[in-house]
Amino acid sequence: MIRALYSLAIWLAQPLLRRKLSRRGVAEPGYLEAVPERFGHYTTPRPHANAAAGQPLVWLHAVSLGETRAAAILLKALRAQLPGMRLLLTHGTATGRAEGRTLLQPGDVQVWQPWDSLRAARRFLRHFRPDVGVLMETEIWPNLTAECAAQVVPLALANARLSPRSLQGAQRASWLMRPAYAALSAVWAQTEGDADRLRAAGAQNVSVLGNLKFDATPNPAQQAQAARWRAALAGRPVVMLASSREGEEAQFLKQIRPPALEQTAPAAIKNEVIREPLWLIVPRHPQRFGDVAAMAEAEGLRVARRSQWVDAPAPDAAQADVWLGDSLGEMSLYYSLADVALLGGSFEPLGGQNLIEAAACGCPVLMGPHTFNFAQAAEWAEAQGAARRVADMAAALATARALLADEAGRRAMQTAGFEFAAAHRGAAARTAKAVVRLLTARDVPAGQQARAARGG
User: Fold this and answer.
1) Are residue 172 and residue 232 in the same domain, yes or no?
2) Which DSSP letter does residue 442 get?
3) pLDDT at 218
4) Which part of the chain is the 3-deoxy-D-manno-octulosonic-acid transferase N-terminal domain (predicted)?
């Protein structure tokens, strides 16, 4: 009865979703692509797959860009374990879908995640008939999980995390979310804390396999490119605001104006001869690139945009105050270029972005007070000396400038970053083996199927 009411509400909300997609499609045309897929209508045939012959159809759902990058790490390990597998890749955002295209091989299929109406979820599963499903990180949808259980499609939540705040939300809606978590065949959590919270939300068969993002390796071509760019800067240091979110760029830009820099620079380094840094801003969401450029120019800063050159910065870029990293898939380049990175999402109450890639590139990280999305990784990085916690943006800029004057301290953080990233690897192989076991066993407990089909 409870899920029936939810299903009715979701069905009634479909016109609102279509309007939302139309609005977002103005800035991001990718949202206008293949809209009928959102509602379970497909022109793409099911990929040829034969689980008995070791060629299963593995469904991976990665809602957005970060999840797609984590899925790429798992997919590499899965293809090694299942060389004949076919991939069904789904997303919820245009950036995730664009990134996901790079992961496809002949015989693979990419479509939108179905809207969580009962009919759309049912059409999706009946059309593609995946042999196993893997949801990345946090994506739990009541009708989709229930339909997987009803149609005996083993479904796991991989690289799973659940913040205390999200647990509270799940518990407030426990009448709906508890059966959804219980319908999962397996949950592979990043940390013990995540595992405890996922169990409290209703998940069963929970184990801790670690964070896939530790298995990401920096792109060597981008690292080499960063070295060439650093040479072109002739020793000018680079301070980066990484994966910034709305509200953070404004704080950053106010702090890097010359009067603000004079006020925030620590007394110990005011008399040091330090070249004015090149300020590098890499926004998290591409639809905001233009807005951030306009904000910087409104502050009277000279801006050079990465999108305006190819392999090397434009001739006048070295004279700019700010470089805008308005590209996708180049975080290894940016982290390898920067002397210090300020962690986006942590200076507003947004939970922080992934700091593991920065550490793997040997880039010291300064993080604000809000890192609940990556709480364990942030704690480990700080304990190992790869990252430092600061109170706010002003403190972050002051600390960054101090680090520019402290080469030994900066080198120590770089070394700690390498060690921190290396110490927690192995989740990809463990998770891939777990997918194979789930696929082999086709183990969806009957009790879970019955509960899911009843809606709790």
Assistant:
1) no
2) T
3) 94
4) 35-216
